[in-house]
Amino acid sequence: MKLIHKLEPIWWMLFGGGGFVAAFFLPGLIISVLLLGPSELMSTGLSYPRAHALAASPVGRIFLIAVITLVLWHCAHHLRHFMLDLFGHAVAPIAAYGAYALALAGTIATVQAVLAL
Amino acid sequence: MAETKLYKLEVLRFRPETDKQPVFETYEVPCMDDWVVLDALNAIKDDIDPTLSHRWSCRMGVCGSCGMLVNGRPVLTCAAFVRNYTGTIRVEPLSNFPIVRDLVVDLESFIDKIKSVKPWIIRKLEKDLSEGEYRQSPAQLEEFKQYSMCINCALCYAACPVLASEPEFLGPAAIALAHRYNLDSRDEGNAERFSSLNAGDGLWGCSYANECSQVCPKHVDPAMAIQQAKLTDALQFVHVLPKKSFT
Amino acid sequence: MSAAHAKVEKTPTAPARKPSGFPLGWYRYRNYTIFAATCIPMGVAAFELLAGVRALGGGEEAWNAWLQSLAAGPMRALNIVCLLFALYFAFRFGWVGRKIAAGRIGPIPKPPAPMPILGVAPLGGFVTLWLILFVILGGFV
Asked: What is the pTM (predicted TM-score) of this model?
């Protein structure tokens, strides 16, 4: 836990940054892609050539990496504190290492996937 | 004698010599219309059960010693009018603190945390008396004045859900006080406080329930102090801000 | 060291009690707990988007298959839950964030205003951004 505690300001900044990104973009992405994605409404907008062009553009790549990774780090930090609220001090190390490991794995996978576009 | 009305008070009792765990005891107390819960407790002690133990002193929201849970919410009992409650009034000792006896809690951890942030003005070099006082403009005073209104009543510690699971968390009042001195133009102790704010859970345990600010009888807004302290601390951590950036 | 400073034996105490009504018993704690719980559906949504990016990298067929998988009933239900939590998050974050954004504040402020009033103002800005995103992704311009 020493290392975790030493880096607390970093976790918090990732949490705050992710929070802003999530509030700015996440509901919009959930509505436009995850909910309306398969519908007729988005059939041209999210058709493969257009979606690929949008995502593979420099702005698109930065946007995707920023949104997905920051939201993951945000959620990891929040999850860590949520676990403490639910299960108490005893789970502190598992909650911290588990949550941040998940976010780190997600970050690597995201960067990989975006670079492979 | 003015008219009285009968109120039912459910008080949590803990007598370490006989009770294994705290138990509720019910009292029927004739209260006058302008009585506060503290008056009712004093009436119990005076007329009904002299063994009841509770802390109080000033009766006017300044000393900060009569904080208890009334119907589950942390309040100063000297400011909680009985007429504002309907039905039975439940009085319990502050949550998140071990109970010494009845409504008296063990505040040692609270005092230790307050002390750990060095809540006094730290100077690298004390000025000689002949050089006069440390001057401060009204604008500089305004920077931190709000956070200096704390009366150490510990209501914020009783309301904080983080302290329930992380007893090592520094807690609202201590962090607000540290922030108050860090913001003081006369102070140079920011670097020293930085290390206690960052020890273990320190400042970072806060997950922003905001209850500390909601229950604070002095409107100190510790939650705001914690967030600002976090931001300052984080920027200092990555060297965007120097350790002493407030003068 | 004088006798007065000698270590005093601690009196026996009853253990500390949890705040009354935490985590779900009282509405303000409940609001906080729901806010904390938003991390799970929002994390799920982020991982779903990650799966989408991977599908996009896998070619047209993989992309279309991924889009179609979103149309399934359970996925739809899951995503609606994610949306509700993400909306609640944005709502409360707008209220929470003001205290960080306020920086070093001077005058003694009024007691914190109730959440709905302060949460709504930033939400207006958020909604505008979500709409812009919708227009761009839908190719409506």
From this structure: 0.91
Are C11 and B21 within 8 A, CB to CB?
no
Q: Among B200, B230, B233, select the one facing A5 at the smallest CB separation.
A: B200
Sheet holding B73-76, edge to edge: B23-32, B4-13, B89-92, B67-70, B73-76
CA distance C26 to chain B (A): 9
Q: How far apart are CA B216 and CA B224, in angstroms?
A: 12
C82 part of contact set with chain A, CB < 8 Å: yes
Q: How many residues in chain C?
A: 141
Per-residue pLDDT of B120-178, as tens digits, reads 999 988 888 999 989 999 988 988 888 999 999 999 999 999 999 998 899 999 999 99
Where helices occur in chain C by DSSP H, the ranges are 27-37, 39-57, 60-70, 73-101, 115-138
Separation of alpha carbons B219 and C59, rounded Å: 58
Residues on chain B touching C111 (C-beta within 8 angstroms): 213, 219
d(CA B7, CA B83): 9
Rounded to the nearest angstrom, the minimum Cα separation between C126 and chain A is 5
